[in-house]
Amino acid sequence: MTKKYDFLVVGGGIAGISFALKASKHGKVALLCKTTLEESNTSYAQGGVATVMYPPDNFDKHINDTLIAGDGHCDINAVEQVVKNARKGIDQLLEWGVDFDRDEENNERFDLHKEGGHSEFRILHHKDNTGFEIQKSLNEKVRNHPGIDVFEHYFAIEILTQHHLGEIVTRQTPNIECYGVYALNQKSNHIHTFLSKVTVLATGGIGSVYLASTNPSIATGDGVAMVHRARGLILDMEFVQFHPTALYTPSGERPVFLITEAIRGYGAILRNRKGREFMYKYDERGSLAPRDIVARAIDNEMKIHGDDYEYLDVTHKNPEETKEHFPMIYKKCLEHGIDITKDYIPIRPTQHYMCGGIAVDLNGEASIKRLYAIGECSRTGLHGANRLASNSLIEAIVYADKAVKHAVGRIKNLSYNERIPAWNDEGTSLTEEMVLITQSAREVEQIMSTYVGIVRSNLRLQRAMTRLEILYRETESLFQRSVVSREICELRNVIGVAYLIIKQALLRKESRGLHYTVDYPSKIE
User: Fold this and answer.
1) Rounded to 5 degrees, what angle do the CA atoms 280, 286, 287 make?
2) What burial class does residue 10 get, using C-beta atoms within 10 Å of its C-beta: 0-12 exposed, 13-18 middle, 19+ buried?
3) Among 147, 227, 274, 330, which has the highest number of CB atoms less than 10 A from its own CB?
4) pLDDT digits (tens, 9 = 90+) for 151-205
């Protein structure tokens, strides 16, 4: 079955829905979600949205904070674009019905948080579940929109290029174009061809590459893997962000519950298992140092003392105020027998965000023509070697807007490529060996968590690559002879993403930001 749309959006988080809502004024839009609109990385974002709102804050301060966190690897043009257009993005969210907390004494002003790496209070938030509030508001808009067809439980398998017309496509092929995607309808198990004039990937993060992550299980790096297979440019995959403070539970639940950075901005203190504050040993900013520094410090404390976790202490703050500001964290910790107003919170670093991804320009366009990537799956250059807290949601909004404006200006000169054939599954059969897929997925998680974590070495990376190559060959062989399923496709994607992380980590002969290697402990200036 073939479907045709002016705009095809893959992914239903803040990036994808923002694009869809704006693009719908200029043509027919399809929005594909591999589960439902409710399940996205956006929904799990606790902290908030970083935006310059009131003096004494200003653009220069936000730009400088972003550059410092990015450790000399940011694209200054991307940083300036996001910071200077952030307020317009906030206004758009307010128009779409998003509710940010207001100042108790002056309802005309927003209540702002301060987080690690920020020099001023500039984080708009809704309690401690900002992402959920944004997702809820956007879902209401998109579900009732006559110009947007939402396809839930549709899994994008491949982006369509000249390769599907029988042409040989390499990384040196000029002017590779995207004509849409093949997508699996998970309810009927039929593969549909979606043809589009413009395709947008907003597929989110890569958390399932690791054993423990704050991401939902759907975060399998699908967009990055598809573009890599289509010979598109992928950059900065070595910069995997581990959030310093995820809730430690002996059961190892997934996704791991995040303890927002805003709680440290509020005054929480990091302590070791003996109750001693330790962050000033590592950075003069103490518990408010950027995430890469804090995560490495906690990791080091755990290794020094042989601990499974350390502590976050907010017991010195006003109990009622703490419960008011962080109701979700308070409730979640109580479920595990922890009263955060009286007890220390057990925490440890956990995979959280990917700073690299599909390389895009200032309009969000990838190296493959007619293809845009926005949100976490993209590499805009904003985050550099380490994302500044709460810069991700605003990046998604700003780049969705830029991508729409750029795509609309070109769409009247684009047409559908009707020569794309239907998906060919001749010679394949249903696999009864699901255990092979689940076991291989576990092996990838174990390899990446053991060898490609917060601290790396060439030996660890090479060992990870050697083991991953075996899994790659086994999985490709299984894929070629099997009827397509979401499980086998996600495994392929996870292996592809893991390969890119390891390969690009091996190529970086220095320690910078989130990439720390014992072989090159210093960064090259």
Assistant:
1) 130
2) buried
3) 227
4) 999 999 999 999 999 998 988 898 999 999 999 999 999 999 999 999 999 999 9
Euclidean distance between CA atoms 200 and 166, whole angstroms: 23
Buried b (16+ CB within 10 A) or exposed e, 417-443: beebeebeeeeeeebeeeebbeebbeb
DSSP 3-state of 24: coil
456 is catalytic: no
Distance CA 206, CA 376 (A): 9
Amino acid at 103: D
pLDDT value of position 465: 98
| CB atoms near residue 127 (< 10 Å) | 19
Output the six-digit token pair for 120: 């001023």
**Which tokens is 276 given?**
């001693």
Looking up tokens 């935006």 gives 51
Domains (ranges, CATH) in the chain? 2-238+355-397 (3.50.50.60), 249-351 (3.90.700.10), 434-483+485-517 (1.20.58.100)
Of 57, 380, 368, which is closest to residue 200 (Cα–Cα)? 368
pLDDT 10s digits, 60-84: 999 999 999 999 999 999 999 999 9
Tell me the C-alpha distance between 365 and 99, whole Å: 31
Residue 352, classed as helix, strand or coil, is: strand
Residue 370 and residue 197 in contact, taking contact as beta carbons nearer than 8 Å:
yes
Q: How far apart are alpha carbons 347 and 244 in whole angstroms? A: 8
| Predicted model pTM | 0.93
CA distance 270 to 279: 7
Q: Tell me which residue of 387, 371, 415, 412 sits closest to 227, measured CA to CA.
A: 371
Identify residue 235 by its one-letter amino acid code: L
**Three-state secondary structure of 366-425:** ECCECEEECHHHEECCCCCCCCCCCCHHHHHHHHHHHHHHHHHCCHHHCCCCCCCCCCCC
Q: Which of 122, 271, 291, 387 is catalytic?
A: 291
- Written as one letter, the residue type at 476 is E
Cis before 255? omega within 30: yes
Type and span of the H or E element at 92: helix 76-95
Residue 313: count of CB within 10 angstroms of its CB: 18
Task: Name the residue among 147, 105, 114 with its Cα closest to residue 47.
Answer: 114
Report the alpha-carbon distance of residue 110 to residue 457 in Å, rounded.
45
* Residue listed under structure tokens 């967009």: 223
Question: What does the DSSP 8-state code read for residue 215?
Answer: S
Find where tokens 């002016």 sit.
Answer: 6
